[in-house]
Amino acid sequence: ESMENQHRAITVLGHLCKTNLMVFSDSCSSSTEMNEFSRKFNDLMFPDYKEFREETTRLFQQTPSFHPRTHREMSLQGLRNLTAQRAADYQVVASKVGLRLRDFKEDIGKVAAFTESVRIPEVSVGTQHGVSIGLFGQAVVLLGTDIHEKYIDLIDNWEMIGCFALTELGHGSNVRKMETTANYDREADQFIINSPTVTSQKYYIGGAAIQAEYAVVFAQLYVDNEWKGLHPFIVKLRENGNLCKNVHTNDCGAKMGLNGVDNGSIAFNHVRIPRENLLNKYGGIDAKTKQYSSPISSPDARFASQIAALVSQRYMLSVASRSFSTIALATAIKYGLHRRQFGVGDQEKLLMDYPLHQRRLLPSLGKIIAMQFANREWINMFNSGENKKLIHIYAAGLKAYSTWTMLEITQICREACGGQGFMEENLIGALRRDVDVYVTFDGDNHLLFQQVGKHLLDCVRKGTIQLNPIDYGSSNNTASNHLRNYDFYSEALEANKIGLLQDLYTRLMDLIGNGYDPMSAWDHCQDIVVPLVKSFMFQFFAEEFKKVLNSCDPMLVEKLSELGSLFILSEFEKNTWFTRSGYFTGEKHISITNEINVLCSSVREFVVEILDGLGFDDRDLGNIASPDFYQSKKLF
After folding, report:
1. What is the spatial distance between Cα 261 and Cα 460, in angstroms, rounded to a whole number?
2. Can you say whether the dihedral through the CA atoms of 432, 410, 449, 502 is positive or negative?
3. H helices within 385-485, ranges in order?
4. pTM of the model
5. Quick one: which H or E segment has residue 267?
6. What is the rounded distance in angstroms from the CA atom of residue 629 to the CA atom of residue 627?
7. pLDDT tens, 420-437?
8. Of 36, 5, 8, nearest to 606 (Cα)?
9. DSSP E strand boundaries for 458-529
């Protein structure tokens, strides 16, 4: 009965997509008035889709179900019900501003602009919506053909809620070893989807426990007992809230975070589906001849093409990481601008006036700005379509580097706010808990880094990266103007990358020379691969920051240059390669530390202008961000 009630609620919510939004009287603080610098900085950060962004933000801030934001005192089922409602309302906003499923194929920049304009910091809601639209829906659009067009409006209208069933209990990252099977029955013109082993059940699938009515299921296709590789199929899971025949699901239960999302397992006991339910862009059964054909002969290459088509989803995780990092960082910094502790005399000192507090928070501000510039460059790569392999490599690197950065920033902010950072109402602790899974879903970060590392090694093999001798000429230059020079940053970052590549190449050759097979040798080099790829992605961030500085409004240059220097030098300070290799002397490393202290003090003076330009006002942040926070608390 509860399942039927749940289904009725979701069906009703689906119909909301055809109605007008209710608007409520906003009792939160008014939006921040930007000065000229902040306006120009905002235009630099978000130069496109301006009206679209403003309307999206306005609708999110005025949708009743998104307020109040904190609700963790609810039961698990209550939280899931609320998340289901909010996910439907999320899609209402998307429909109102004209974001459609086809935009994943035709205008990914618009999808990114929408994500950046979301003003509901409940990660479960965006994830639940993203599972049905960004994963299930995107798979239908990008892996299907004309015969699947009939589903698109249903998905857009929240009338066909789906999930993405790739991961299994026995296999996650090693997708080629998935065990779910799809056998083609030529006489019936149907596929038979089956879970032959315990480990073959689809597992940890968002939406599978309760919400999803359909799934895109990846299964090993067999035609006349011949293996054709992994293929995606649309499989119906539920009808009016009840499981379909021979479909079995289980609830994964409570998790470390993201508990609004109903992760579950799915098992299929010889479930029959029509031939048309195969998403057949890269391979399918001809309707007349009933024979299999594909434009790609290799099963492995065929699956690689299917996954490559969904590459933008990894990029969207980097976009979301920048937004969530901004919420945490803006909340923590604004709290530090009115929270006082200790000091000389009767007047206690603001937290943000302590050098240590500045060091904890301000370098990350430069890093999230660099993340935004790097994300924008990926969009340029994607839209050009010139080098699909490079698009895939940078998407993998961005997803891993950005999600790790987000985890680091949210933890720093949690600690910097003391006990207030642990409170649900202030969002930081909730964000830290809920975004933790970002580092492992849609690709474990360490494995994604391996993809990038192999690409860099391949560039050495092809000669597009030369392992030239490193120039140590500036290793002892401690002048302030040198330490703030972006050409110095470029030289140092290139040296870091080349030095680690030399170390990797040398060790690989030594191991292979001593009898290791290439894969085993590679496995014994991961202590070099991970820092190598981190240095490569850091270089990407820093170079994009430099490129923007060279072309932006002159009014922005001085302050952004200082913020970029603070971010880059702080990373240099933490990177042991520079002193270990001799590229920096001990004296230079000390000078870098001193320069960071000076930059922190300088950035402190204009940090409010930067925060205003990032586009999140107090109503979008944790409660402690507001200077009226103490007045909101009752004494009796």
Report:
1. 43
2. negative
3. 388-416, 428-434, 445-462, 480-483
4. 0.93
5. strand 264-268
6. 5
7. 999 999 999 999 999 999
8. 36
9. none
